[in-house]
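Run log, item B.
One chain of 313 residues. Sequence copied directly from the ordering sheet:
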Amino acid sequence: MERIDFEGWKNSVRLSNGSTELVITTEVGPRILRYGFVDGPNAFHVIGEDSGGAGSEKFVPYGGHRFWIAPEANPRCYEPDNGPVETVEMRGDTLYLANPIEKISGFRKEIFVTLAGEGSAVKVVHRLTNHNIWPVTVSAWSLNIVANGGYVVLPQEEFVSHDEYLLPARTQVLWKFTDQADPRWRWGKKYVTLAQSAAEKNPQKVGVYNTLGWAAHITSEQVFVASIDVDPRGPSVLPDWGCNYETYTDGPFQELETLGPLTLVEPGEIVEHVEYWTLAKAHQIADDDASLDAKLTPIVDRGALELAAAFGR
């Protein structure tokens, strides 16, 4: 751990194991603003006009990884977090960050970030503590603003013919502004993909119940994989009509999101959601099922082995 200046923010925290690094701002957020190989590209996008900013009375996205409460609601989700992080400390090999109790939601957000001793594996624990005097039903929601110029991959369930299986396979949720004819979408047999394009200003979003427990973001240089442990209770316990993965894009940025189960959190109790990351160098993986099968699937499998070795997952 070391303190550095990053994209205009002073006193940011850098974690590195020699091959992979993370940078987390403490002047606002917290936001994990960088995840990448040392001297390599950032898996996340930092919004240029927001760089180094602080103190605004309005919510500012900044870019990178952030932690919200689902279901999405205004003003609860959009409560500004533009002041300093309250607590920043190393606990063994884990960086602990905590915000003050939010005035609107009444919850305290804590993030535990662990970078493996070698390789790219990262474990991010998101914790919500209810400081209200009444119980509240919430879901912990992880959002990653990923690097520009790429596309998100959501794996489909295994294809089975109508003659072999008659029941539905999974939940897939659309928003009122979703346009399935938009050229940024590709609805394949094995994968659903959504590309980011700065020229396309109309937002797009989809949510799914993903039993495979992973999704990826692909650029021309690398692959970022976000994994979760899938709740065995199924979509009925999840927000947004049963979604544990979502992706959203609007012109200059794109998000890859995961969500934990809706939980009735009593006063003083907590709920947690864990997201795992791996990263791999890759070049020009075409957005078609054959290329993704040949090039992405081995990356996902290697990442799973890396996470198992680092965190016993």
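Observations after the first pass:
- The CA atoms of residues 121 and 308 lie 9 Å apart.
- Residues 2-311 form a domain with the Beta-galactosidase; Chain A, domain 5 fold (CATH 2.70.98.10).
Flagged for discussion on Thursday.
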